[in-house]
Design a protein that fits this description.
This protein is mainly beta. The chain has strands spanning about 1-5, 10-15, 20-25, 30, 40-50, 50-60, 75, 85, 95-100, 110, 125-130, 135-140, 145-150, 160-170, 175, 180-185, 195.
Length: about 200
C-alpha cells in the first residue's frame, strides 16, 4: 500500500501477481495502472514524501513461495501513475522495499532480494541519487544474501536500517536464513554500514 497522506482517499495497491491498482475514492472503485508493463508482479510501491505524484515501483514478489513470480526491475512515474519509465535493476528479480528521501524525490533506496532459485550477484541494497538514472550497490553480503527491507528515520534521513536475508529455494526444499542474514545500520545516508551484533540480534 502507498497512501497520499495529504489526500488519503488516493492510494495504490501492489499485488503479487495482479499488477498495480489505484483508487481516488477511498477504494470504492479501482483502476489498473500497470497493465502495459512487462510484469504483473509487484514487490513494493511507494510515493516520494515530498511529491506524491512521484511513484516508485519495485517488481517481483519477495515472498518465499514455490510459485513466487519474478519481476523486471524498478519503474517510476512522475505523473501519479499515468506513464512509467523503466529504471533498470532487472536482474534483482525480487524487490522487497523502496524508500525515498523525505525531501528529494530523486534519492531512493531499493532492497533487492535476488533470485529465488539460485545465487546471483545482484542481491543487496541499491541507491540512486538521480531519479533512477544510475544505481550504486551500497550494501552487499554474498551471492545468496539479499536485502529484504530498509527503513529510514523520518527525523534524520541519514539514519537507516537494512535487513539482509539469506535464501535459496530448490525443487526439494527451501533454505531460508543463515549466516548472511543480519541487521545493518547506517548514519551517513547508506554510504557505509555497520553490522549489528548485539546479543539477541
Amino acid at each position: 500500500l502507498a497512501v497520499v497522506e495529504s489526500k488519503p482517499q488516493i492510494f495504490y495497491v501492489g499485488t503479487a501477481s495482479g499488477g498495480l491498482w489505484k483508487t481516488e475514492n477511498h477504494g470504492d472503485s479501482w483502476t489498473p495502472i500497470f497493465d502495459d508493463q512487462p510484469t504483473a508482479s509487484i514487490g513494493d510501491v511507494t510515493l516520494a514524501p515530498s511529491n506524491p505524484n512521484v511513484v516508485w515501483v519495485g517488481t517481483g514478489e519477495p515472498q518465499n513461495r514455490q510459485s513466487s513470480p519474478w519481476g523486471a526491475g524498478v519503474f517510476r512515474s512522475t505523473d501519479a501513475g499515468r506513464t512509467w519509465s523503466f529504471l533498470g535493476l532487472e536482474e534483482t528479480r525480487h524487490i522487497a522495499r523502496i524508500v525515498v528521501h523525505p525531501r528529494d524525490p530523486d534519492v531512493a533506496y531499493v532492497a533487492a532480494v535476488g533470485h529465488l532459485w539460485g545465487p546471483n550477484e545482484e542481491r543487496g541494497l541499491y541507491k540512486s541519487d538521480d531519479g533512477g538514472e544510475s544505481w550504486r550497490r551500497v550494501l552487499a553480503v554474498d551471492e545468496l544474501t539479499g536485502a529484504v527491507d530498509v527503513a529510514m528515520s523520518p527525523q534524520d534521513p541519514n539514519l537507516m536500517l537494512a535487513a539482509m536475508y539469506q535464501r535459496q529455494r530448490r525443487p526439494w526444499g527451501f533454505h531460508g536464513g543463515g549466516p548472511g542474514s543480519a541487521l545493518y545500520r547506517s548514519t551517513d545516508g547508506g554510504e557505509t554500514w555497520t553490522k549489528l551484533t548485539n546479543t539477541g540480534l
